[in-house]
Amino acid sequence: MTSLAPHHHQWSGPENTPQARELARFPLLSLAAAFLSIFLFAWLAEGVAKDQTAQFDSYVRAAVHQWTTPALTRLMFAATWMGSIGLANVAVLAFALFRYFLWRRAAIWLLVTVAGATVLVVGLKFAFHRPRPVPFFGAVPQTYSFPSGHSLFSFCFYGVLAGLITARIESRPLRILIWILAATLVFSIGLSRIYLGVHYPSDVLGGYLAGTIWVSTMLALDRLRTRRKNSVP
């Protein structure tokens, strides 16, 4: 009788795939990305605190808003939904799939990612207390503006989810496609927050940089752990 159970030996985990072993050799790259993002975030945050980004924010908001059409507005609302309720739905589906394939480490990784992103969003928003801009569409959200929670969460969640899935896929074209889809989704979510007018462009950039700090740090720690594990005789 043919077993209907998942072929777990085909999904043995990222540490056993060639691409993951290659990544494990370069933990310093992740640390470098984290430190660079910290520097850029600090520079941007200082500009926000001193209101030095006002001209940049106004210019980008106006440039984006001039492309307004009814169809594009609907598309932007759909994109911003994928950074909130849609993201939560994808997270539930991802955890269900991880449980099905017994990807315990992937589930823990994703859980830590979401938990860390939540702490970052709440802490940074209360630290800066930046008021929201006047929206172009919809009501004013009840949270502070800097950094964009949608941008930070989407960068962390979809980026890590793409990494977890591609680490378990041998097909290079499929891995590239997944990364392209994840990057397009993250960019669209950030753009939607500017298009709808509920965030300043500097808020979105701040969300991406904060997300890069968190994800790069996690990658560096994981690569160091994998490198240490592979070096044990």
Report on this model:
This protein is mostly helical and 233 residues long. It has one domain (16-224). It has nine helices and no strands. The protein has helices spanning 18-23, 27-49, 54-65, 70-81, 85-100, 104-128, 149-166, 172-195, 201-231. Helix 4 packs across helix 8, helix 6 (104-128) packs antiparallel against helix 7 and helix 6 runs antiparallel to helix 9 (201-231). The longest helix has 31 residues, at 201-231. The protein is globular and about 50 Å long.
Question: Could you report the average pLDDT, rounded to the nearest whole number?
Answer: 86
Strands, total number: 0
Instruction: Report the principal-axis shape.
Output: globular
Tell me the fraction of residues in β-strands, as a range.
Answer: under 5%
What's the helix and strand layout?
Elements (H helix, E strand, L loop, with lengths): L17 H6 L3 H23 L4 H12 L4 H12 L3 H16 L3 H25 L20 H18 L5 H24 L5 H31 L2
Short key terms for the protein model shown above:
single chain; globular; disordered N terminus
Give me a quick take on this structure.
The protein has 233 residues and is mainly alpha-helical. Helices cover 72% and strands 0% of the residues. It starts with 17 loop residues before the first helix and ends with a helix.
